[in-house]
């Protein structure tokens, strides 16, 4: 009887031993399977699925791009342009009393210039009269240029010019002037000039001091030779127009060109000739103003006296 009990205990121990061994083997198999799965790299997974690692990388990049925030999110106005085969977009935001206080320029969908990131402070910008564009964009000096009208110097002019130079955007003008962007005259790489004036002209005899600026190293410098040539051409045009059909407005344009060139004596001769032929009317009050303004300039008592020598480089 004792022998039977011992044999039964031995049998139980053998069964328990076999069970433990099976459990170890099963656990070992699970661990090996898990380790094998963890050791499979993205490249191995891609290969096992029949997809190249390069394709997986491109897919991941696209997924990251898809989740990037829209750089023009909540913009109150957007402009779009195509220039030199590239697509440009401009988004505007406003937290002031004018049309916009911040803008972002995108080139082919990538942010190329952010006025806030560049710490460009201005009181406000203006959209054009139709409210369709916030900037004029042309090929200036053979490179993309962006012209923004600002409210900082109201009621006179203020302007911000951004040009793409050496592959990146730079502020080239930020000054209380108006820049006349002339796409037709700036198609060549060699033309590095800007036509600029600080205020609008008015009557009687208040010409806008148009100045030609040339890009010099890292800023725009007044070019007196080109400025004088501009006004001499303006004088020739205005003289021809006045002779063909004289009237007070054409006389004002003619006298303004003489005034800008510092040739007040010649201007007075034209004025005297017109006064002699003019009928006695209300316009004679303007003629008296013309004579006084010309005399003041000749005596150095107006902003037009030797004004070309006083012009400063453009701020940026």
Structural write-up:
By secondary structure, the chain is α+β, with helices and mostly antiparallel strands. Helix content is 38%, strand content 22%. A four-stranded antiparallel β-sheet has the order 1-2-3-4, with no helix packed on it. Strand 3 (102-107) and strand 4 (110-114) form a beta hairpin. Helix 5 runs antiparallel to helix 6 (264-277). It is elongated. The model is unreliable at 1-43 (pLDDT under 50).
Would you identify the regions where 5 or more consecutive residues have pLDDT less than 50? 1-43
Helix proportion range = 25-40%
- How would you classify the helix and strand content by structural class? alpha+beta
- How many distinct beta strands? 12
């Amino acid at each position: 009887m004792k022998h039977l009990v011992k044999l039964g205990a031995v049998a139980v121990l053998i069964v328990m031993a076999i069970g433990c061994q099976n459990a170890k083997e099963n656990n070992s198999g699970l661990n090996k399977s898990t380790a094998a799965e963890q050791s499979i790299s993205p490249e191995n997974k891609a290969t096992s699925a029949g997809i190249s690692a390069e394709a997986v990388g491109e897919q991941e990049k696209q997924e990251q791009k898809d989740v990037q925030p829209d750089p023009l999110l909540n913009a109150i106005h957007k402009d779009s342009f195509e220039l030199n085969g590239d697509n440009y977009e401009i988004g505007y935001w406003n937290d002031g009393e004018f049309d916009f206080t911040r803008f972002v320029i995108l080139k082919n969908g990538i942010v190329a210039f952010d006025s806030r990131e560049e710490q460009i402070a201005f009181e406000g910008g203006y959209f054009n009269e139709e409210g369709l564009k916030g900037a004029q964009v042309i090929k200036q000096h053979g490179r993309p240029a962006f012209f923004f009208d600002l409210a900082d110097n109201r009621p006179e002019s203020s302007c911000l010019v951004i040009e793409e130079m050496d592959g990146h955007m730079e502020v080239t003008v930020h000054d209380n002037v108006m820049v006349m962007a002339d796409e037709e005259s700036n198609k060549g790489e060699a033309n590095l000039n800007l036509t600029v004036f600080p205020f609008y002209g008015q009557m009687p005899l208040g010409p806008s001091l148009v100045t030609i600026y040339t890009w010099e190293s890292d800023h725009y410098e007044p070019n007196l030779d080109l400025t004088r040539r501009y006004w001499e051409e303006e004088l020739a045009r205005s003289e021809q127009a006045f002779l063909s059909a004289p009237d007070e407005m054409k006389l004002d344009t003619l006298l303004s060109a003489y005034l800008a060139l510092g040739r007040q004596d010649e201007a007075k001769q034209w004025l005297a000739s017109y006064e002699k032929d003019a009928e006695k009317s209300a316009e004679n009050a303007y003629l008296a103003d013309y004579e006084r303004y010309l005399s003041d300039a000749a005596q150095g008592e107006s902003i037009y006296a030797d004004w070309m020598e006083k012009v400063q480089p453009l701020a940026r």
